[in-house]
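Cross-check.
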Amino acid sequence: MDSAFATLGQHKRRTWVGLACALAMHVAQAGSDCPRLRAALLPGPGLFEPRADGSAAGMDAEVARELSHRTGCPLDIEPTNVTRLWRSLESGAVDLTSGAVYSEARAAQADFLVLTRLRGLALTSRALAEYVPDREAFAQRTELRLGVIAQARRPASVQAWIDRLKAQGRVSESGDLTGLLKAYAAGRVAAVWIPPEVLVGRTDAWLHQQRLLDWFPDESFMVGWAVSKRVPDPVRRSLRSAAEAAHRDGTLARMVQHHLGPIVSRHVAVVAVPATVVVNPTDPTR
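Predicted model, tokenized:
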């Protein structure tokens, strides 16, 4: 399953009837020698929000405009989903995509341009957070139930902890994040295991009453933009240089803060694309 940012597109679905045609959104630079590129973005609040007039809001939409501006490459943007995201990039159906989970194997197949480091977090109420600052404190409170996504893939240490609770009858499973958050809102579970970006768009008043707790600080993963190696090498180099410059000058960090808000962005870090790295090859919150 691809990317924490991808999850929003998966779980906050709209009906995209005819959208691929209606959303021929061009982010172009006049007079550029760069070929027109196809970019697939995952829809979701704060990330990619297409509008009826063909424009779009959100962080990934702004990243697309920034890359186009810095390279002169026109970008045709279309929505995608987590099922076809990487497959479309591999097949050449699109040239760039957002929301791709980083792994060394994938880095050999495509060039990663922008990466954010994320972790799955526990969401609980402000009142309860004082008593369960870590996972063992939560485990010791046997009356508390945890909500998770059914059949999700997680790091072994996270899954082992959840399995301990499940053996005690303390885990409620939901089919998707929408159902999970509904169970939390209804008070059927005391905490839920989520990627933090699913909280984008929640009111400040609601967020003020919640806490995101980092119970597994060593279990991070990275997601970001990737460009197909079918794209000519000079164009890929130009895109990489543009992304690196936007990272160095703080542009990308400002986008995260602006679009995701202060509470969520606290848990999302823009990082340099490494030459080699050991990370979880799949999104551990799904």
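Residues 203 and 223 are 26 Å apart (CA to CA). The first strand starts at residue 25 and ends at 27. Passed to J.P. for a second look.
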